[in-house]
Amino acid sequence: MVEKEVIARRLVLLEEYLSDLDEIREKTNWDHFSQDKLTRRFVERTLHIAIEACLDIANHIISYEGYREPKSNKDTFEILEEQHIIDKNLAEKLKKMAQFRNVIVHDYVTIQEQIVYAVLVNHVQDIADFGKIVTRKYL
Questions:
Q1: Are the C-beta atoms of 98 and 29 separated by less than 8 Å?
Q2: Transmembrane ranges (predicted)?
Q3: What average pLDDT is seen over the chain?
């Protein structure tokens, strides 16, 4: 059985990251984002740690429920789909987020600001949806 306190702490952090991203999304547009390196770096890093929080939560659930060991970050969300914790649609979106996280961490030199902006504008809700599901199922 999962440790609710561990999940709750990660969800509090995730909510803070999402709030920060929502604030930036409301205040910025493409022109500002593309010209302001501090905003870009803030968004990149905040997306990175938000995705890490999702991975931490997912790995905690997998470990404590005794599910198979993930082969990769993407596989972490595949396991949650296999166990009917998240649906296929959300699993696919979160697997793409895991790939995006890998680009931020490992290929940061080649990261395209258009992709970061698109994730900010169009996909932060996927992270929020994951948090809602985990809250509903485990807290």
A1: no
A2: none
A3: 97
